[in-house]
Amino acid sequence: MIGLSTYSYFWQHSDRVPEPLTLIGAFEDTRAQGVDLFQICDYGPLEWMSAAELRNAASAASALGLTIELGTKGVAPEHLRHLLELAEVFDARLVRSMLYGPESRPTLDEAEDWLRGSIRSFESAGIDLALETYEQVGTADLVGLVERVGSERLGICLDPANVVARLEQPRTCVELAAPFVKNVHVKDFAFARQDGWVGFTYSGAAMGTGLHDYPHLLTTIRPREREINEIVEHWLPWQGDAETTIRTEREWTRITLEHLRSTS
């Protein structure tokens, strides 16, 4: 299933725009674009919303016919317990996370111990935990961790754009992670020369115009065949003013959705 996420609305949620979009507003816009899946990912307000506000958001998503996934950072046991509670509120079947959280940077051995203890609750709840590929942990190390824990509910959220920062090849990341992928983050990316030709900027690009070999990902991962959700994200730099930035962000979403639908 194709989905949008809070990263699809990064600037529209931001306090840099005159009227930031609410979470329920993003749900409504997602449904208006014919999308049935939304991933609430690294969305700060989720951590301090009241129980009533959480129930209201979950009810809005349900009324719109949206499937919800959650995304966070960190694998500390108490944090994952909290995410399971939130997953119950939203009836989410997948939680995406990263090994490092705001207050914890475990070694691989520590992360393994934590995950061995936590994953049983995910198994009992029937919820997947997908650890994202990113620059702070090598893909081979992440895959090895998932293999050692050895739970069908533990897998990988594949984002090959992230690993370029540690000089990994995106195609290699895709191939290493392939057997364990439970979620895909979809965004294109590219390098551009900085002004004065001094160095490069690595950032997002409109889908299909950058370096992401998405046909290779589709062939290798087979997400539609394996029922792995593809979640749209953007790495859109600020475009100088709110109006231009929001317009460009919405255009990138349209382009990405068309690209994904054309390959289904």
Automatic annotation (TrEMBL):
Residues 78-254 form the Xylose isomerase-like TIM barrel domain. One of its GO terms (molecular function) is lyase activity. Keywords: Carbohydrate metabolism, Isomerase, Lyase. The keyword Isomerase applies. Gene3D superfamilies: Divalent-metal-dependent TIM barrel enzymes (3.20.20.150). Its EC number is 4.1.1.120. The keyword Endoplasmic reticulum does not apply. It holds the Pfam family AP_endonuc_2. It is an enzyme of class 4 (lyase). This is Sugar phosphate isomerase/epimerase. It comes from Microbacterium natoriense.
